[in-house]
Structure formats: structure tokens, C-alpha cells
């Protein structure tokens, strides 16, 4: 009995130490998971730039400091691409503004009605010129999204007119007028908006901006026809994937939870499509396009929706053909205006293998600059001190900063380099003579 009592006494002395050790181990495990998940040990750095050494690119890097300075995300969560993406996608922006615009309606040749919102500048542009940003949002997005409103408000205050495309079918209160909605690479609605701006403002110059899927559309639009680049000063594409055909394989992988994001985006697409079920599937439209709406309910990926619904809007015979013809990778090499391509290294939607496309393009073409940040997620790029992000993001600032630099470059160029054809300079005043 005495032996048992001694054992119990010894055990009672050791238990608190054991529990303390378990607590410390649990705390250490939690801290380790937090540090790993939030990437707290990851460094901050300026964007990794790929470009050719030209006078224009040297001027841009000097005039747009966001491209060369360190991008510092919020300390506690900003180094997680997932949290950056979630904050952009679900929580919106801090103190999101509500710019006032006018909605325009444009009838299309196939009976569809494109819409875009037009926002006038809130002051004169610093160069004194008339400049319009033509903006294409991300998948299923429109001018009322928080990130678009924040960017438009910022651009207006810098002297830019903004025209924002509302993807066909994306606005919940606008009915479709034909059995068709937006697709991954259809440029018809964006072209109609650009055409309207050129006619309504014959003296304006254009800056083309595309976010995510919108980046694919604007680069494809510019590369489809050389005339589409007329009066365009430059183009900025943020967080696009360049090739849907290459991306589809990565979207089925669980690496970086892309399969989960694929499911979420597919679910959102289903909601948009079903909100227009009468226009898309009602009456003769079902027979005409040969859609299979029953398969929509069981779809768990964007590829299934694209194969059963989206490709049929334009009569593509297969998913492969749809992705090949709608991806900007086959057109972007035809873009000759200055082009800034921006991606984030921790974007959970864009696989690293896709980034060889913009990197190779920038190495080959002198008009292209490719900027890759360490952090930022998908269209996040929040900045801030510790916890709460600033209303304006690094993405907002770099687009406007790049646009400002391009406008200054265009204004100071000699006549012989203006993008508009002008009478030749006198023989004694050549481009070389004025230091270009």
C-alpha cells in the first residue's frame, strides 16, 4: 500500500509538468501552422521585372515608382495569397466609394444588348489631354463591384474618364435580349464600348485596362486587328492566365486549393446562368444552340460548364477549340502598344507554369513589361500596416502610375514619334536631333 501511495504521490507531482508540456507543444503547433499558413517568414521585395532596356522602359520605371519599390502587404495576413484573394472576392474594399456614372446600352448584331457605365473625370488630366480608360472587369463582374468602384474613383480623381464594361449577363437587374452571355474571350461587347468612346470623344486617347478574365479579353481584342490599337496609348492586364487550354489541367489539381476555387467559380457561374434561364434556354433558343441545361446542375468545374454551355454560344465544336480560340496567347504577340502585364507569385488561381507566357513575351518584345510580385493573391494586392488594409491597393496605384507615365511620355515625344500621323518634321529636325 505504501508503494502505491508513493507512486500516486510521484504521479501527482509529474502531472502538472506533463500538462504544461502538452500546452506548450499545442501552442507551438498552432504558432507553426499560423506561420506556415500566413507565410509570415516570407520576405517582401520589389516586383520581379522582365523587360528590354529601351528609352521608354527606362522612363516608365523612373516615372512609376510602384514598379521598382518594395511591395509591403499587411503584416499579419498579407503574405497569404488565399487571404488576399478572399478579401478581394468576398469582403470587398475598405470604405468602398460609390462613383456616379451613366449607364449606356449598345445593341449588338445578334440581338444582344451590351451595357457599360461611363464615369467622367473629376478634374483635368495633368497633361491637359483628354484620356479615357476603357476597363474590362473579371469573370462575372461589372461596374458595381467594390474593386472596380475603388479603382474608378481613384482614376477619376486623377483626371481620367472611365468606361467600364458590364459583362453580358453579369448585372442581376439587366435582362439578356438574346440567348448569349459573356464568355472567356469574346471581344464583341468590349469592341462595341471602345467604338462608342471613339465616336463620342473623337479627341480622346485610350488606356486599356483588364482584370483577370478581362485581361485576356483586352489583350485578345488588341491583337485581333491592328486597327483596334489606334488611339490606344497603352494597355495594362492584371492577374490573367493567358491560356485557358493550359490552365484547365492546373484547375483540376488540389495544389494551392485550385480545385476548390474552381468549384466556387463554377457555382457562381451556375447562379448567373440560371438567373437568365428563360433567355438562354427558353423557347427556340434551346433547340438552336443545342444546350444541355440539365448537365448544368451537376457541374462541379468551370470546364464542365464551358463544355456544356459556354462554347456553344459561338458554335465551337469542342472544349479544346473553344479554349484555343478564346485565349489571348494566340493574339498577344500582335500587340504593339506599350503593354504592362502584372501577376502575383502567390495567386492561387494562376499556376506558375502559365507565367512563362508573359515572361517570354517581355523578353522578346520591347513594348512589353512583365511585373511579378511575391504576394498579392488574385486581384488582392492590399497594402497596410498590421491588420487593416488601406482602401487603395498596390494594384490601383500601379495602373494609374503606369498610365500617368505613358501620358507624360506621349506628351513629350517629338512629332515624328506620335502615334497619330502628322506632317513630317523639317529636314533639320529629326528624331535623333531631339534626343530620342
3D architecture notes:
- The protein is globular.
- Strand 4, helix 4 and strand 5 (161-166) form a beta-alpha-beta unit.
- The chain has three domains: 1-38; 48-243 and 337-416, Alpha/Beta hydrolase fold, catalytic domain (Rossmann fold), CATH 3.40.50; 244-326, no CATH class.
- It is built from 15 helices and nine strands.
- The N and C termini lie far apart (100 Å).
- The longest helix has 37 residues, at 2-38.
- Strands 1-9-8-7-6-4-5-3-2 form a nine-stranded mixed sheet, with helices on both faces.
- Helix 2 (55-63) packs across helix 15.
- With 436 residues, the chain is α/β, with parallel strands linked by helices.
- The chain has helices at residues 2-38, 55-63, 81-91, 146-157, 188-200, 213-224, 244-250, 258-275, 277-281, 285-289, 293-298, 302-308, 319-326, 356-364, 394-412; strands spanning 48-50, 102-107, 113-119, 131-136, 161-166, 205-211, 232-238, 339-344, 368-373.
- It holds the Pfam family Abhydrolase_1.
- It is found in: Cell membrane.
- GO terms for molecular function: acetylesterase activity; monoacylglycerol lipase activity.
Amino acid at each position: 500500500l505504501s508503494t502505491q501511495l508513493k507512486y500516486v504521490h510521484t504521479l501527482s507531482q509529474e502531472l502538472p509538468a506533463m500538462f504544461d508540456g502538452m500546452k506548450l507543444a499545442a501552442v507551438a503547433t498552432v504558432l507553426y501552422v499560423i506561420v506556415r499558413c500566413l507565410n509570415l517568414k516570407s520576405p517582401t521585395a520589389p516586383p520581379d521585372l522582365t523587360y528590354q532596356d529601351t528609352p521608354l522602359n527606362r522612363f516608365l520605371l523612373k516615372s512609376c515608382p510602384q514598379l521598382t519599390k518594395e511591395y509591403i502587404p499587411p503584416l499579419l495576413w498579407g503574405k497569404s495569397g488565399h487571404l488576399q484573394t478572399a478579401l478581394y472576392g468576398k469582403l470587398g474594399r475598405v470604405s468602398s466609394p460609390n462613383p456616379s456614372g451613366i449607364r449606356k446600352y449598345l445593341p449588338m448584331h445578334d440581338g444582344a444588348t451590351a451595357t457599360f457605365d461611363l464615369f467622367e473625370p473629376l478634374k483635368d488630366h495633368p497633361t491637359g489631354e483628354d484620356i479615357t480608360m476603357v476597363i474590362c472587369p473579371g469573370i462575372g463582374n461589372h461596374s458595381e463591384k467594390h474593386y472596380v468602384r475603388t479603382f474608378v474613383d481613384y482614376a477619376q480623381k486623377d483626371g481620367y474618364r472611365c468606361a467600364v464594361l458590364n459583362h453580358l449577363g453579369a448585372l442581376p437587374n439587366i435582362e439578356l435580349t438574346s440567348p448569349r452571355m459573356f464568355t472567356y474571350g469574346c471581344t464583341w461587347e468590349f469592341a462595341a464600348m471602345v467604338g462608342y468612346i471613339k465616336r463620342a470623344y473623337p479627341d480622346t486617347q485610350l488606356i486599356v485596362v483588364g482584370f483577370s478574365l478581362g485581361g485576356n479579353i483586352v489583350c485578345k481584342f488588341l491583337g485581333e486587328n491592328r486597327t483596334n490599337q489606334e488611339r490606344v496609348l497603352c494597355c495594362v492586364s492584371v492577374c490573367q492566365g493567358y491560356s485557358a487550354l493550359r490552365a484547365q489541367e492546373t484547375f483540376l489539381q488540389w495544389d494551392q486549393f485550385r480545385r476548390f476555387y474552381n468549384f466556387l467559380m463554377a457555382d457562381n457561374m451556375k447562379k448567373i446562368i440560371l438567373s437568365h434561364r428563360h433567355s438562354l434556354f427558353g423557347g427556340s433558343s434551346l433547340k438552336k444552340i443545342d444546350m444541355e441545361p440539365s448537365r448544368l446542375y451537376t457541374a462541379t468545374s468551370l470546364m464542365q460548364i464551358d463544355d456544356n454551355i459556354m462554347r456553344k454560344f459561338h458554335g465551337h465544336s469542342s472544349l479544346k477549340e473553344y479554349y484555343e480560340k478564346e485565349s489571348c496567347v494566340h493574339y498577344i504577340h500582335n500587340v504593339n502598344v506599350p503593354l504592362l502585364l502584372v501577376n502575383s507569385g502567390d495567386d492561387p488561381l494562376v499556376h506558375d507554369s502559365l507565367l512563362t507566357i508573359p515572361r517570354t513575351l517581355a523578353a522578346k518584345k520591347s513594348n512589353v513589361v512583365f511585373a511579378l510580385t511575391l504576394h498579392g493573391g488574385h486581384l488582392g494586392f492590399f497594402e497596410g500596416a498590421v491588420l487593416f488594409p488601406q482602401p487603395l491597393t498596390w494594384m490601383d496605384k500601379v495602373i494609374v502610375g503606369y498610365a500617368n507615365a505613358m501620358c507624360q511620355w506621349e506628351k513629350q515625344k517629338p512629332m515624328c514619334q506620335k502615334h497619330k500621323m502628322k506632317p513630317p518634321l523639317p529636314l533639320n529636325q529629326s528624331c535623333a536631333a531631339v534626343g530620342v
